[in-house]
Amino acid sequence: MKPETKAQLISVxxxxxxxxxxxxxxxxxxxPGAGNIAFxxxxxxxxxxxxxxxESPLExxxxxxxxxxxRDGVEIARGSIEEELIHCPDQAFITMCEKCVFDxxxxxxxxxxxxxKSMDQMLTMIADANETxxxxxxxxxxxxxxxxxxxxxxxxxxxxxxxxxYDVPIGVSVYPTEDSTLRLKAAGADELKYNVETMDRKLHxxxxxxxxxxxxxxxxxxxxxxxxxxxxxxxxxxxLGETDESAEKGIEELxxxxxxxxxxAAAQHPLRKGEVTVERPTAERLMHLNLFLKEKLxxxxxxxxxxxxxxxxxxxxxxxxxxxxxD
Length: 327
Ligand code: SF4
Fold this sequence. Notes:
GO molecular function: iron-sulfur cluster binding; metal ion binding; transferase activity
Bound molecules: iron/sulfur cluster
Number of helices: 10
Protein name: Biotin synthase-related protein, radical SAM superfamily
InterPro entries: Aldolase_TIM, Elp3/MiaA/NifB-like_rSAM, HydE/PylB-like, rSAM, rSAM_sf
Domain Radical SAM core: 86-296
Keywords: Iron, Iron-sulfur, Metal-binding, S-adenosyl-L-methionine
């Protein structure tokens, strides 16, 4: 699958397909896609996660053992449906807490009132995933049930207990606290993700009123110092109203401090109608910004293809500039 095709699929984000074709259904419980039925499509080693929606302009059908995706009757991709382990293929990706006290205007999680997993539940889920023999990494993320400090404490304990048992890389994505970076590193985490969400200062203040972008950037800087180069990443949502110029400035700012940005296409969730104006990026915009990102990563000596945990190796929701775009 060419990056332009993947960009097109991400831009649409869904296919009209018989859900019975998915023998492994996934209903994400975190982030902007929470609550949708989705599956992983793989074509030529390139992966994309697609929601199943009747109203999608893309149609997917099984033909001779392959899933064929068409737009207006014209084939645009063919490949297979990939099984997930926990949340995504090859990884046990655990959401510790599916609630959030923050109120980012694009995110449905605070309104979904999801579950909080106990330590025993998480350890059992990971033990079961390990039994399959296909667990290449463990990733941990979380909303914020009561405080960021409490989530860091839980992540720290979970990482420590997993490190004693499993010899796979562990990545953690939480909201940072004053000492989260040092504590997670000491517990044995290998990779770190603190999400900036947007680098547009004005939009950040409006859309993430409970978060502090400068604090997040300081935490990311410290993350790079403690975890090292090519070990720290950050989700950067595209389509919240930022201009290309603002997005490019933000990409360069992150890359210049040693952070690998993940350009995530914004999605309008029905529970957030009226609170945010989402302009889902076009395939052309996704390609343009990812080519810019690739150029900047290369200029600053960073890689998007050496991470072992979380979204960069998964590539389901985003173009990975080094895995999906050829040199
Ligand atoms: S790219 Fe990240 S959010 Fe998307 S499916 Fe993969 S692990 Fe989940």
